[in-house]
Amino acid sequence: MTPARVTGTPGRTRVLIVGGGITGLAAAHRLRERLGPDAEIIVAEQAMRLGGKIHTVDFAGRPVETGAESLLAARPEAIGLAEAVGLGDAIVYPSDAKPALSLGGELLDFPAGHMMGIPGDPADVAAIANAKERPDNGLPILEPGADMSVGALVRSRLGDEVLDRLVAPMLGGVYAGDVDRLSVRAVMPQLAAALERHARLTDAVNEIKRPPSDGPRKPVFATVDGGLERLVTATSASARAEIRLGMTVRELRQTPYGWEVIAGPVPDPIKIKADAVILAVPASPAAVLLRAVEPQAAAALSGVAYASVALAAFAFDRVDLPERSGFLTPASEGKTVKAATFASKKWPHLGRRRQIVRVSMGRLGEEALLQYDDPTLAKTALRELGEHLGMRLPDPVEQRVDRWGGALPQYTPGHDARIAAAREALGVHRNIAIAGAAVDGVGIAACIASGQRAADTIAATVVAADR
Ligand SMILES: Cc1cc2nc3c(=O)[nH]c(=O)nc-3n(C[C@H](O)[C@H](O)[C@H](O)COP(=O)(O)OP(=O)(O)OC[C@H]3O[C@@H](n4cnc5c(N)ncnc54)[C@H](O)[C@@H]3O)c2cc1C
């Protein structure tokens, strides 16, 4: 191994961000705002492109997402960032088409009045699940700060069918996880807070359900016309960061003056010195980098399991899809396909000349699925899609398969407390922060908030040290 080359400009504040997904880029953007034009902000990304789980491709002449497809517009961070980087005019919203629940060979309407599949009134879901609220003991369901799994909560209060037929498919779309191992506090924080005040689950749900409004409903989701990768590119440009692609960060060391990382290929390593470091990578690389620095934080991160998913996309020239945005289906239906999005029904900006359907496969523990070759996965997806829709589908004019191995972090009960303890342990080391889907929430909006929070923390200490 040749001696490491050292890069750096003496006298300028330098922050190194490890990971060029949306978290790292949102952090870079916020750091530029906080530290001004002179700061050196470096983003080291191991892949040859930015964006991580956001990746837009040209498919059948349309910009189609191979990973994340929508932004949560119900919270401010994603739309706020898009506007801040000049994409305000490109934000587009879905049509009024709603997703269906595919059950017993039928596409059924999702009942109204639920929160992630948990009803505010068992009668609302009677057509789909046998739901009966169990007697309670008059005490709040959760003690302050306590946690439990979504599965344990819903099974014990409303029964197995509500969990298996409604809640699991809803959460499966986001986490691809096992509801018996998903933390209520991490995946439904608002509900967890309400459970500290209520003895009945339905009362907690009714407290936080969005009240019906008289005016036009504000859309919950949005995306960017032209693809979410535009958000990645625009954020990166607006951050004016030095982007280093193909640069894997392999080692992190604390020095008396800040941090030093070893990056790049093993035979030709590069040593980068920085005043501060933000780790915006998945849990496993973050744990590796922190092992020698702060073992407690490394242990908390290495405990985060990941689920894998595969997506098949199909473009059809002539097909009569239902007027729905797609469907979800419970694992009890015994299918490989767990959800489908009728992209061109859901997103009017994609146009309807060609119908584009994205089919997702894979739940936690179904990693073997990813071993099948592309034609086999596509064939399975297409056959099952036809079964769900009750029709023989024509041959697609174009198809593709994308695999996301180990892509979706699973927050088990106690996740928030473990991450808080990891952050506390890291707090004794100056100028280092962790952020991203592994720690603060899986959705893009949550990742942006997490990157911004890390940047705020670092900017505050770096600026204080300069005074
Ligand atoms: C199939 C799929 C669909 C999804 N759909 C949605 C959706 O519709 N809406 C939504 O809000 N969210 C969705 N998500 C979740 C969301 O996309 C991700 O949680 C989010 O984009 C993660 O961002 P991140 O920056 O934290 O991590 P990542 O995107 O994983 O970025 C981390 C980056 O770090 C790099 N890296 C790792 N190790 C190193 C290292 N040692 N050195 C340098 N670089 C390194 C990686 O290459 C990667 O680019 C989806 C996720 C998947 C997989």
Automatic annotation (TrEMBL):
InterPro entries assigned: Amino_oxidase, FAD/NAD-bd_sf, Flavin_amine_oxidase, Protoporphyrinogen_oxidase, Zeta_carotene_desat/Oxidored
Signal sequence extent: none
UniProt binding sites for FAD: T23
GO terms assigned for molecular function: oxygen-dependent protoporphyrinogen oxidase activity
Listed Pfam families: Amino_oxidase
Swiss-Prot/TrEMBL cofactor(s): FAD
Top-rank EC class of the record's enzyme: oxidoreductase
Domain Amine oxidase: 22-458
Annotated metabolic or biological route of this protein: Porphyrin-containing compound metabolism; protoheme biosynthesis
PANTHER family in the record: PROTOPORPHYRINOGEN OXIDASE
Name of this protein: Coproporphyrinogen III oxidase
Gene that specifies this protein: hemY
